[in-house]
Structure formats: structure tokens, C-alpha cells
Predict the 3D structure of the following.
Amino acid sequence: MHGELGPDHVLVDDRGRPVLIDIEGLMYFDVEWEHAFLRIRFADHYPPLRRDGMDEQRLRFYALAMRLSLVAGPLRLLDGDFPDRDFMLGIVEHNLQESLAFLDRR
């Protein structure tokens, strides 16, 4: 279950119409939550998606919560027999470093 509905959940059918995909578990969140996710997901490609007037403190708080989740979730997977452990450890390490960097940016 994902919860989010970002641009990578939209495909175009053979007649040029947008089609939503992978929407199980979709939930409504406030705009800062959605944009914190978009910033993480699209990184350098985020600027065209940017929206003015958002609360920067909420964006930072939500980004930290998401980063911590991206540490905890993969660690839970690694408790089992996840096949690509190095890949998952890379996700953990990257998001752990981003979480710790949050403390330096206060």
C-alpha cells in the first residue's frame, strides 16, 4: 500500500487519455505532505512540480517523517530473506544520512 498519488501514477492510454495506476490504499493528505514526498521522489526534477505558498516547516517535518520511514521500512524487510540486501541497505544508509542532516539544518 502506497498512500500517495504522484505523477508516476499516471499513464497515457492509446487514445491519449490519462489513466491512474497503482492506486490501492490511496489516501488524502495535505499539500505539504504530498510535496514533501514529491521532493524526495523526484529530487532534481521536482522544480516544475513546485507550488508556492506552502508551509516550509511542515514540508521539513513531513520530509523527516518520510525519511525515517524509509529507514525503518527497509530495516524490517532486512529482518527476513530479502534478496537484494545491498540495495536495501543503500536505501537505509541514504535516508539515515538525510535524516541526520535534518538536525544540522535546524
